[in-house]
Q: What sequence folds into this?
């Protein structure tokens, strides 16, 4: 592989990422970029304005930049898309209503500590500095929410109520996460004091949300088509026809449901449904894991096995990407997620299980496909490959660019790949994969249907979608415990446009592959799937519209 000489556009991209990291230190930590782990992001109106102005200034510089090769063309197209959308989202004022149950400043100021090392005095200097900054960061966040109240752009009442609960839990003076963190350094009274002040700042945020924001919050969960369309473009990385995509989502849900029900009959006998098949599988003691420690060990073993089996045959996995770390998350909300390796891979890519309280048993048939989604060939392969390409890609494409439709779409596509490659041959493992696919199809229908005021099919209540019909749709199609379902439900209602990007992204990845195969056939060539995947992954994370252009479709 030839080392590529950096171009003017590469330097602009590198400079943008460095300046962005200085303005958003929490994002820098999330992507593994060093140098800002002792700082917090400014979530005040001025902080949001500064980040938007950086995007505008960089777009102006890009206007006069001339691409030197195909890699430059990808960078230019991707940066223009992402930065212009960031400005558009800023101008729409979404920063002033940034509160939901999973991905808003409320969570970011606490979750950043999960990614921070705590082994050396320097590590604890960074932790202490961040703890000291929590009160100011949350004060700036309150200023932004206050501006939203002034403008009449306020998160829905459901999101505010859940935000109060989360902030109060983090701010509990007896059990706050920050106190647990400080307990790891028991002889450091200064850290203990800073932790207490950070917890108090969260308690103050809970009071502010309850006393100042809740009264202005709309009862209606739906945000409307205009706001939704902007969010969809941002998350998917392409313009999608919302009406056509909603109709497709209904068809896809029916298709996956039929596929799953046929498999259920194979597992549990003629006429058996998915619940009965799940009972049969859960009763198999050989497929049950006891305790989170055993879960982590099983995850690690399965991830390592996948890397060993796929490398060289289906993918050429860069050496540092052949290491992944399975972790049990310190949070307990039921989420499962991946975090990037650092720039030098000293912090490996990690997949995390956030296990709800009281859950001590895990069925492997439900979990295996998630290991592939978060690990290899999913997020870890995709993100790790880009980070490893220092000789080919600029730092923004390697680390700073992320489009949910591209990344989450790839991970969902990767689940089906593992079925195609024969790794889900056991009926139970296939049923688990289909469980995930059905949930993602449900999200397309629920998210677009509710927020855009679509008409629900008669079997889901008919008329305009509302929160009650959406809940019925979810519990009828996703076979999980109520705590998980409630969290997911609140997530879809508050983080609008994000959840459908998985299934929509998978659809666009599958279309890109089909187009590439057709093009090869037209040239009289055999389609090389491994080469297609290599070419696509080595572009870095790009909007799906740019992926299509770059692959020559």
A:
């Amino acid at each position: 592989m030839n080392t590529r000489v950096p171009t003017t556009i590469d330097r602009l991209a590198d400079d943008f990422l460095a300046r962005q990291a200085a303005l958003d230190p929490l994002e820098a930590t999330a992507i593994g970029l060093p140098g800002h782990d002792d700082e917090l992001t400014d979530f005040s109106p001025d902080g949001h304005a500064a980040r938007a102005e950086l995007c505008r200034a960089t777009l102006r510089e890009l206007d006069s930049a001339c691409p030197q090769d195909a890699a430059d063309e990808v960078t230019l197209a991707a940066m223009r898309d992402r930065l212009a959308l960031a400005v558009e989202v800023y101008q729409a004022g979404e920063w002033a209503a940034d509160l939901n149950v999973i991905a808003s400043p409320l969570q970011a100021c606490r979750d950043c500590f999960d990614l921070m090392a705590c082994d050396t005095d320097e590590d604890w200097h960074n932790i202490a500095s961040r703890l000291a900054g929590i009160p100011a960061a949350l004060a700036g966040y309150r200023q932004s929410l206050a501006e939203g109240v002034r403008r009449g752009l306020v998160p829905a009442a459901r999101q505010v109520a859940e935000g109060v609960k989360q902030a109060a839990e983090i701010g509990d003076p007896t059990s706050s996460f920050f106190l647990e963190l400080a307990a790891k350094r028991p002889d450091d009274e200064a850290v203990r004091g800073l932790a207490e002040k950070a917890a108090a700042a969260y308690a103050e945020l809970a009071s502010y949300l309850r006393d100042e924001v809740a009264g202005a919050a709309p009862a209606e969960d739906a945000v409307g088509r205009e706001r939704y369309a902007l969010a969809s473009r941002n998350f998917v990385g392409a313009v999608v026809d919302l009406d056509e995509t909603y109709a497709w989502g209904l068809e896809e849900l029916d298709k996956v449901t039929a596929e799953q029900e046929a498999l259920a009959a194979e597992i549990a006998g003629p006429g058996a449904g998915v619940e009965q098949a799940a009972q049969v599988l859960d009763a198999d003691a050989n497929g049950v894991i006891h305790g989170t420690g055993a879960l982590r060990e099983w995850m690690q073993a399965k991830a390592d096995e996948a890397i060993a089996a796929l490398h060289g045959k289906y993918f050429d996995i860069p050496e540092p990407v052949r290491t992944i770390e399975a972790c049990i998350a310190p949070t307990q909300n039921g989420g499962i997620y991946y975090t990037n390796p650092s720039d030098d891979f000293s912090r490996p890519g990690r997949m995390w299980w956030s296990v709800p309280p009281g859950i001590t048993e895990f069925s492997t048939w439900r979990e295996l496909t998630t290991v592939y989604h978060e690990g290899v060939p999913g997020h870890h392969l995709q993100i790790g490959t880009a980070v490893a390409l220092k000789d080919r890609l600029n730092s923004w494409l390697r680390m700073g660019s992320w489009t949910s439709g591209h990344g989450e779409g790839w991970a969902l596509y990767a689940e089906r790949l593992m079925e195609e490659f024969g790794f889900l041959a056991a009926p139970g493992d296939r049923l688990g994969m289909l469980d995930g696919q059905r949930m993602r199809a449900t999200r397309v229908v629920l998210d677009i249907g509710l927020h855009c005021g679509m008409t629900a099919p008669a079997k889901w209540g008919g008329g305009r979608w509302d929160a009650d019909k959406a809940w019925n749709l979810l519990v009828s199609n996703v076979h999980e415990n109520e705590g998980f379902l409630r969290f997911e439900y609140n997530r879809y209602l508050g983080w609008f446009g994000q959840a459908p990007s998985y299934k929509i992204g998978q659809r666009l990845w599958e279309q890109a592959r089909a187009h590439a195969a057709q093009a090869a056939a037209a040239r009289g060539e055999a389609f090389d799937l491994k080469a297609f995947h290599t070419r696509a992954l080595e572009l870095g994370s790009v909007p799906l519209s740019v992926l299509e252009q770059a692959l020559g479709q």
The mean pLDDT is 95.
